[in-house]
Amino acid sequence: MAMNFSEEEKKKMLEDESEIYQKRDDGLDANNGQLKKLKGREKRAYFRQYYLGTVAVVIVVAILAVLFFKNAVQKKPHCVLYIAIEDDVLDEDKVADFEKAVEKYLNIDTKNEYVKVDNGTSDQEIQTYIYSGVVDVIIASEDTYKRWANEGCMADPSSSDTVSFYKDYDKNKKYFAKYVSGEELRKSKQSAEKLKSSEGKTYNFGLYLSDSKKYKETLGGLLKKPVAGITATSKNTEEAKQFIKWMME
């Protein structure tokens, strides 16, 4: 049913100042000129209350966007040769200088590439690095190197063309060791070093750096008979090959 109001009732409704009939006014509205009436401190308080939170969010989002874009497009330097040295105590400054010398010899772009000489990694870490292809070259004492050779972690000329250059050196420069297969290890309770290979054959798994001036003088190595070689999983075989040759000069 439609409701009919008298003229007097309509007039009263129009004049009613109750909130339900008034246009909502939130107070300090910049559009109605009231903001202009505020003084400096009041304006700052008004700004903090109504805008500062939004501005802060916008700034944070903008910074995150810039950082994300920068990381996405910026090319990070990558390692072109990873050398793990065990059983020796080396001076950090000499290691740093040695890395620079190797980088210079390999003529690499040092802005995008680098050489890493690792002298403080545990056997477990090195084993993981070998299996994952991180380590390219290992330098160690005869005993430690023997373990990696026995387990087949090092490349040899009979199965890898990468280290065929080992054949160019005199026999007294070559390091020989047996290889014990995983099956032989599983059947035996002995370690790879103690277990005899069923083939009874040794392989040229590395080269001695006993007379290497670069190892003794440039790097400051103290091992009497260090052995160096390229891992069977190396991903930077050409750089590893050049490095070993350089060390043997």
From TrEMBL:
Gene3D superfamilies: Periplasmic binding protein-like II. The chain crosses the membrane at residues 50-69. Keywords: Membrane, Transmembrane, Transmembrane helix. This is Extracellular solute-binding protein. It comes from Butyribacter intestini.
